[in-house]
């Protein structure tokens, strides 16, 4: 354990010497709380009693001899479970009023930009709707009905997977019904800005300023509050004709959706990541960057929401910048940052240096990217820094097995050099379709296909077309993921969050190393703590630019395998997602296990055919998604502690710690996603083949609520995604 802790501290940049530091001190006093069952040294230093989860952990204070008895039964709670002495305030939940609209669904990234001590703007992303639960609870929460039954009947009558509503004639009753549902779903997505204040008793309340507003998936459709774009892709948006579909709106863009994680700049603006846009509009494009036809994505309540209205797919999948303090700002999409399934962005802005933005493409086999500006940052707090995003270069990361790496520019002259399918855990890589007139992509499953591709194309200029250099560059950025595959960027393990440490190190959460239909990670880079390939439970990576220069073209990296059961070399969680460093350098992390695996019953580690249960199924052992805290100073530095776990069937998202470290904002996304409303406090007993921290197997009986009533927590209440402020009841710092 000591070696693991020292490794983790050095990995975080804290140094092994941090283990010998004294307990955290605040105003001359220790901030400590009893740590039941832990060694005396830990009792003196821990600021909270860690929350007990279903899995024995090395940091939970229960001795090895007591673990079986303490964990043979477990009752899961349908609540945001916090340590004793902490509480939470619900800032807003789905359906609450925001400006002239409402609080959206499945809130994700949170950003708090202070305007004065204890008050400011909370910016909230709304990612997607959970179709079944959204439909089940819509009328109860929103107070109006939608024609779900009529559209579902029409869908079943067609026998098809979806409805091509875009092609239906105007005036068709079915088209009107589909548009009504799609509009309401798109209203529940996008970005929200709400003004908040901390009261004298420490609680947080909304103040309902004139700047409170929603930027939804239909903003601009009826009110002309269009979003706009900067960078080379604008040349594609504004040209008069092209190979594929064009919406005729030039640089005007209707709305934003699938807004997952994001980032906050030193100059007080917020970036929102458009992630899984491929479900709403076509992702693949033609060689000139123009879109596939809207009818290629049909409507199924959770799919095709943008195609119904003829949205051009190439205008979605970007990073959107918003100034929360400006009530007239409805967002700018900076196309130099690339179009792909953005999860988050980390901003490195230092005086006299180039501006650097880091972001990951959250798909199986997605890349890590860096944008570097042409000009230097003068004042990191100046809003003029946004203009630096209008000229520069986007790079994709190439990781070498020896712990080094380089940045590959996504520009016309870059050579074609894809990795082979055999290098990947799933044996497949996607590439731009060699038939450039047809556009789209191919899935290469044989190394010979890649060899043929390389012999056919020399540089990205052979793959992408345009009437000017700007149009060609725009087409490359629009097709960034597939262009990255073509030039040999490393396919990774679902890069979700990116964050910058105090010394300039970049930290990346890779959520899952499993293969899928989009691709899979490079097997020489992404392996589990015992050489497992593929490895489901995920990692956190540290990346250091050579010379600590944000514009460096080479780097070093280390992948610290943190996910998995303690007995198997993990730290006790699965699928790390959002990361947050507080002002003291401590790391906060939330997990993102798929809802279908929450409390998935594991009565045996061997299946009916005598094979080991998959890592994916073993995620059921971990229970609900959780919030973790990793101190980087004091005698407990380098250990991982469970600070919270979320309500049933939800993902905890968007951790954001205030500058005074008194509050952490969290978003509880999709409670009740699988079973919807928890009716009559329903629950069921399930069995789990658990392990102690040393690998001794034992059976656990677990009481699992079915569905959710959070945040109301009253009988048969509808589950509602909500944003909360977590704080200590005594008003002191969180830790």
Describe the structure.
With 735 residues, this protein is α+β, with helices and mostly antiparallel strands. Helix content is 14%, strand content 27%. The protein is built from eleven helices and 36 strands. Strand 20 and strand 21 form a beta hairpin. The protein is globular. Residues 19-44 have low confidence and may be disordered.
Structural class: alpha+beta
Radius of gyration: 25 Å
Basic shape: globular
Average pLDDT for all residues: 94
Unreliable segments (pLDDT under 50, ≥5 consecutive)? 19-44
Gap between N and C termini: 23 Å
In which order are the strands of the major sheet placed?
A: 17-18-19-20-21-27-26-25-24
Which percent band covers the strand fraction?
A: 25-35%
Number of continuous helical runs: 11
**Beta strand count:** 36
Helicity, as a percent range = 10-25%
Largest sheet: 9 strands, antiparallel
């Amino acid at each position: 354990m000591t070696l693991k802790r020292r490794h983790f501290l050095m990995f975080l940049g804290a140094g092994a010497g941090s283990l010998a530091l004294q307990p955290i001190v605040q105003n001359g006093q220790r901030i400590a709380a009893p740590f039941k069952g832990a060694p005396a040294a830990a009792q003196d230093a821990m600021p909270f009693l860690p929350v007990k989860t279903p899995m024995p952990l090395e940091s939970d204070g229960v001795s090895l001899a007591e673990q079986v008895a303490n964990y043979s039964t477990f009752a899961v709670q349908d609540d945001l479970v916090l340590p004793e002495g902490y509480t939470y305030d619900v800032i807003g939940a789905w359906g609450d009023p925001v400006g002239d609209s409402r609080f959206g669904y499945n809130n994700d990234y949170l950003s708090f930009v202070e305007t004065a001590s204890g008050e400011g703007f909370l910016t909230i992303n709304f990612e997607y709707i959970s179709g079944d639960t959204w439909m089940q609870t819509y009328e109860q929460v929103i107070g109006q009905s939608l024609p779900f039954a009529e559209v579902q009947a029409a869908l079943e009558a067609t026998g098809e997977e979806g409805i091509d509503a875009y092609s239906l004639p105007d005036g068709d009753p079915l088209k009107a019904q589909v548009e009504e549902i799609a509009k309401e779903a798109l209203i529940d997505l996008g970005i929200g800005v709400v003004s908040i204040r901390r009261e004298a008793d420490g609680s947080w309340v909304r103040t309902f300023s004139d700047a409170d507003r929603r930027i939804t998936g239909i903003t601009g459709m009826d009110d002309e509050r269009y979003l706009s774009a900067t960078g080379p892709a604008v040349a594609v948006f504004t040209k008069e004709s092209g190979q594929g579909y064009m919406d005729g709106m030039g640089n005007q863009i209707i709305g934003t959706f699938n807004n997952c994680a994001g980032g906050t700049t030193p100059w007080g603006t917020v970036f929102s990541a458009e992630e899984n846009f491929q479900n709403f509009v076509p992702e693949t494009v033609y060689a000139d960057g123009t879109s596939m036809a809207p009818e290629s994505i049909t409507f199924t309540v959770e799919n095709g929401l943008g195609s119904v209205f003829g949205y051009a797919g190439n205008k979605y999948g970007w990073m959107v910048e918003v100034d929360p303090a400006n009530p007239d700002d409805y967002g700018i999409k900076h196309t130099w940052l690339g179009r792909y399934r953005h999860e988050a962005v980390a901003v490195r802005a230092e005086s006299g240096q180039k501006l650097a933005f880091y972001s990951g493409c959250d798909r199986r086999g997605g890349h890590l990217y860096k944008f570097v500006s042409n000009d230097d940052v003068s004042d990191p707090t100046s809003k003029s820094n946004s203009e630096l995003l209008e000229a520069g270069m986007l790079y994709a990361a190439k990781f070498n097995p020896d712990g080094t790496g380089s940045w590959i520019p996504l520009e016309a002259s870059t050579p074609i050099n894809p990795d082979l399918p055999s290098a990947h855990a799933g044996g497949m890589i996607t590439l731009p379709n060699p038939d450039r007139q047809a556009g789209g992509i191919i899935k290469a499953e044989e190394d010979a296909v890649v060899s043929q591709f390389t012999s056919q194309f020399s540089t990205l200029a052979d793959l992408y077309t345009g009437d000017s250099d700007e149009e060609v560059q725009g087409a490359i950025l629009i097709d960034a993921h597939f262009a990255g595959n073509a030039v040999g960027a490393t396919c990774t393990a679902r890069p979700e969050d990116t964050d910058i440490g105090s010394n300039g190190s970049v930290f990346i959460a890779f959520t899952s190393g499993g293969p899928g239909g989009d691709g899979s990670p490079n097997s020489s880079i992404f392996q589990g703590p015992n050489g497992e390939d593929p490895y489901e439970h995920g990692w956190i990576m540290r990346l250091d630019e050579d010379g600590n220069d944000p514009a460096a073209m080479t780097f070093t990296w280390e992948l610290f395998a943190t996910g998995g059961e303690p007995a198997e070399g993990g730290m006790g969680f699965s699928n790390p997602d959002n990361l947050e460093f507080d002002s003291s350098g401590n790391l906060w992390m939330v997990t993102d296990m798929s809802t279908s695996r929450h409390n998935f019953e594991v009565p045996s580690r061997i299946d009916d055919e005598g094979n080991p249960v998959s890592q994916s199924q073993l995620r059921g052992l971990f229970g609900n998604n959780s919030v973790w805290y990793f101190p980087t100073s004091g005698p407990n530095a380098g250990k991982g502690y469970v600070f919270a776990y979320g309500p049933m069937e939800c993902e905890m998202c968007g951790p954001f710690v205030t500058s005074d470290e008194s509050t952490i904002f969290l978003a509880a996304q999709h409670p009740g996603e699988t079973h919807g409303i928890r009716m009559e406090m329903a629950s069921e007993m399930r069995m789990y083949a658990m392990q102690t921290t040393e690998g001794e197997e034992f059976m656990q009986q677990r009481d699992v609520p079915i569905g959710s009533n959070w945040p109301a927590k009253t009988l048969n209440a509808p589950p509602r995604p909500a944003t909360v402020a977590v704080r200590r009841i005594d008003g002191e710092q969180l830790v």
